């Protein structure tokens, strides 16, 4: 493999999503579903690629940003 592949020299990505569902039967012909979903459950950052410009020695090889916040959503679904 050549040495000029831009995506090979980046930190890895760690992501864990989690879902929880619970069904309730309030009356005979009705179904109520509660959902809780968490995306990026462990709140792991997604690191940007390190600086590759040799002419800028202050940022060369340094990761200067990250993204990827935890997101949680709750839902209630009525099926009749």
Span between N and C termini? 57 Å
Please report the number of helical segments. 0
Number of strand segments: 5
Structural class: mainly beta
Can you write the helix and strand succession as a string? EEEEE
Summarize the structure.
By secondary structure, the protein is mostly beta strands. The protein has no helices and five strands.
Structure explained in plain terms:
This protein is mostly beta strands. It contains no helices and 5 strands. Strands 1-2-5 form a 3-stranded antiparallel sheet, with no helix packed on it. Strands 3-4 form a two-stranded antiparallel ribbon. The radius of gyration is 22 Å and the shape is rod-shaped. The model has no long low-confidence stretch (mean pLDDT 85).
List the helices and strands and how they pair.
Elements lengths: L17 E7 L6 E9 L6 E2 L18 E2 L3 E9 L1
Antiparallel strand pairs: 1-2, 2-5, 3-4
Fill in the keyword field for this structure:
80 residues; mainly beta; 0% helix
